Amino acid sequence: MGMSVTISVATEQDAEQIFKLQYLCFQSEAALYGNYRIAPLVQTLDSVRQEVASDCVFVARLGDEVVGSVRGRIAEDGAAAIGRLCVHPRLQGHGIGARLLRAAEAALAEERGATRFRLHTGHRSEGNLRLYRRSGYETVGRSQGADGVDLIILEKPAGAFVQTA
Predict the structure, then answer these.
(1) What pTM did the predictor assign?
(2) What is the pLDDT of residues 131-145, one digit of tens each?
(3) How remote is the C-alpha of 1 from its chain's centroid?
């Protein structure tokens, strides 16, 4: 390939590529649950633009192409809610998701004062669960998404992000 994947803060100009990548990446999740109305597939481009402007958003780039993305924001309880982690299907399994997750964790802890990291994934999403558990996350509960998907909620203390780097 000759180029390496770089991780950087997303810019306003990345919003459309993030939007398209998210739609592509979450097709497999939708198929897993037989539900094509999951939140990442029905999110609007304007909503993605708003998140890029206000949240902690990182992208993975291969040249000029956005091939991965993650978002995080501080919730009311001081925990950082991390979500929409996705990597282009052709590049999955090469550690890009873990690198994006670490970048978001570092920024949320150092720049935004997160005390804990929290994320969720569907109960059938074994690949996601493996990544999150390898990254130090532990199951703390379950819930049901607005789309009806059963979710597993995972957390870890903010100080633990250094151990996964």
Answers:
(1) 0.91
(2) 999 999 999 999 998
(3) 25
